[in-house]
Design brief:
Radius of gyration: 19 Å
Distance between the termini: 28 Å
Number of strands: 14
CATH topology of the largest domain: inorganic pyrophosphatase (n-terminal core)
Bound molecules: guanosine-5'-monophosphate, manganese (II) ion
Oligomer: single chain
Order of helices and strands: HEHEEEEHEEEHHHHHEEHHEEHEEH
Shape: globular
Structural class: alpha/beta
CATH superfamily of the largest domain: inorganic pyrophosphatase (n-terminal core)
Length: 322
């Protein structure tokens, strides 16, 4: 059932025993939204837990709340409410859906959302799920502490490339301004996120050596980079910014990063300048936004690459421009 911001606030208010979760491979939006909501609900004396079927990337350890994250393990639990943040389908939360039996409230902003929950609030105009959490806080006049403001600013800023991408609206900037008034410090957050281990910077030239550009004529080109299994194990979760290099090349319309997860599975990140790559991701069982999407392809690296590049090329040729 579709619900409003006010309905979402009521559902949260009525529940006492609440589990919060978000998508695997969590990003700034998933984590910032989780931590801000966790602070708000636990300040009300509710029993709240964060379950995430993945590790929290080190880059986000500066946010208050990461130490509360638990892995879904053991026996099946019940709860009054399972809140699923920033995830467009149930598979995106991994094992959490198997161990928690509760009505689901899904707060999300993905255009590819499949409306899997009992209650959903989906705003594909929102730059981040963090914007939706902020609106819920405003609805109930919540006390937004500096660490909650920091978490929400991180959620919003990371999903819109620090206010540079097409999803940045006047509303996004207004919310961000309020969060700064409430104590978020953009330069501190940016510095934390930009700082990387030496190994990540040293890997960059090796990754750029894999760059290929596929000429697609007037439709714009496709650029690909590849991270093989060895590179991934060394870099763990710090590969986030690599896709921007092929994306930023003059004449490139679609950028694709292939990350070899194992012998038979490849994580694919898609970025575009104008084409709708969420459709491309959906056709491989993934999802996302028009200009940033992803999927996992259950094939060896070379085969996955051939399949996705061919599909992207066809999409460009067919003029699937958003
Ligand atoms: P990234 O390339 O940064 O992993 O993901 C880009 C966007 O696509 C994010 O909004 C992310 O949530 C979404 N996305 C990435 N992979 C998947 C996937 O496998 N399934 C779905 N539904 N969405 C994905
Ligand atoms: Mn996300
Ligand atoms: Mn998001």
């Amino acid at each position: 059932m579709e619900v409003s911001i006010a309905d979402s606030a009521t559902l949260l208010n009525k529940a006492n025993n609440i589990i919060l979760t978000a998508h695997v491979h969590p990003d700034g939006d998933a984590l910032g939204s989780l931590f801000a909501l966790y602070s708000f609900l636990s300040a009300q004396g509710k029993q709240v837990r964060i379950l995430l079927d993945d590790e929290v990337p080190r880059a986000f350890y500066f946010l208050h709340g990461w130490e509360k994250v638990e892995k879904p393990e053991g026996i099946v639990h019940t709860a009054d409410l399972l809140v699923v943040l920033d995830a467009s389908d149930l598979e995106r939360i991994g094992k959490v859906s198997e161990v928690i039996k509760a009505p689901i409230l899904n707060l999300d902003h993905h255009i590819s959302n499949v409306k899997f929950a009992d209650y959903w609030y989906i705003d594909s105009q929102a730059a981040a799920t963090g914007e939706i959490i902020f609106k819920i806080f405003k609805e109930v006049n919540a006390n937004i502490t500096p660490s909650m403001a920091e978490a929400l600013f991180t959620a919003i800023a990371t999903d819109c490339g620090f206010f540079r991408y097409a999803n940045t609206s006047a509303q996004t900037l207004k919310i961000a301004a309020e969060l700064v008034e409430l104590g978020a410090q953009p330069h501190v957050i940016s510095e934390r996120l930009e700082t990387k281990p030496r190994a990540v910077i040293e890997m960059l030239p090796k990754v750029l050596e894999t760059l290929e550009i596929i000429d697609c004529g007037d439709a714009g080109n496709i650029a690909t980079i590849v991270l093989n299994y060895d590179a991934i194990t060394k870099l763990k979760d710090d590969t986030e910014g690599f896709i921007n290099y092929p994306r930023n090349i003059d004449g490139v319309e679609i950028a694709i990063m292939f990350k070899e997860a194992d012998d038979n599975s490849v994580r694919v990140s898609l970025r575009s300048k104008t084409a709708d790559v969420s459709k491309l991701a959906l056709s491989f069982g993934g999802g996302g936004h028009a200009r940033a999407a992803g999927c996992t392809v259950a094939e060896p690296l070379d085969r996955a690459k051939t399949l996705v590049v061919e599909a992207a090329r066809k999409q460009l040729a067919a003029g699937f421009i958003a």
